[in-house]
Amino acid sequence: MLSIVILGTGNVAQHLFKAFTRSNMVVVVQVVGRNNSSLNRFSKAVETTSDFDRIIDADVYIIAVKDDAIPSVSRFLKDRPGIVAHTSGAVSMDFLESKNNGVFYPLQTFTKGREIDLKSVPICIEAKQESAIETLKLLGNAISGHIYEITSSQRKKLHLAAVYANNFVNHLYGVSETICLDEGLPFTLLHPLIMETAKKVQSMSPKKAQTGPAVRNDKKTMDSHLKLLKKQNQTELYNLISKAIRETHEEKL
Predict the structure, then answer these.
(1) Which DSSP string corresponds to 1-26?
(2) Which residues is 60 bridged to in the sheet?
(3) Quick one: the chain helix, strand, coil %, rounded to 5?
């Protein structure tokens, strides 16, 4: 059984903690964080500390903190015998000062108060030492059925793709919600449309699934939409995305 220390108390740390504690393949022996009040949510189930000089020995140390805090946290682990791995999609593995370092990147969006079943979440792993790869695979298999060994370059591009697929799309949901609410309409009217779009790309290419006035080059409809938009950034977004869609599908027009 693998012993785990989690460093961090945020959304990723909380979700990983819950998943690890449900597995009979690993045991979380300690949670480390700077904020004592945040540590309270873990203290009934596991040993906790805000003193980074009191980190106990473990097989794997999972650093689940903000990207810019990873280097400073890793300094407390540079002489530890276990594997030191961070959970970021964008930070280089070389920012970890431990010689036995790695990456344990769950490709999912984590929001406070929202439960996620990690069994279906891809876990992307990376390490320089083959023994570390095998250990991280075991750790991943303890909570998910989808483990992928990828390179640093692939991980950074995957994170970029995730920003487009998740963060940018969610912002556009927000624009849609604003337009609806401004007219006294509930955003829930768009829920079936959103769900159908998400379902389509599970079985077909997004390019093939594309619909709407831009792909048809329906200038009359697009011009009428632009007249309805009240904010400059919304107009700029509409023009930019419509242009990108037209250029992607121009061979059809």
Answers:
(1) -EEEEEE--SHHHHHHHHHHHT-SSE
(2) 4, 83
(3) 55, 15, 30
Query: 73: which residues sit within 8 A by CB, 6+ positions away?
Result: 7, 8, 52, 63, 65
pTM across the whole model: 0.92
Q: Are 15 and 40 in contact (CB under 8 A)?
A: no
Rounded Cα distance, 30 and 62, in Å: 11
Whether residue 76 contacts residue 84, with contact meaning beta carbons closer than 8 Å, is answered with no
Tell me the per-residue pLDDT of 8-54, one tens digit each, with 9 for 90 and over: 999 999 999 999 999 999 999 999 999 888 999 998 899 999 999 99
Say how far apart CA 34 and CA 6 lie, in whole Å.
12
How far is 28 from 50, CA to CA, in rounded Å? 16
Query: Which DSSP string corresponds to 87-127?
Result: --SSS-GGGS-SSSEEEEEE-S---TT----GGGS-EEEEE
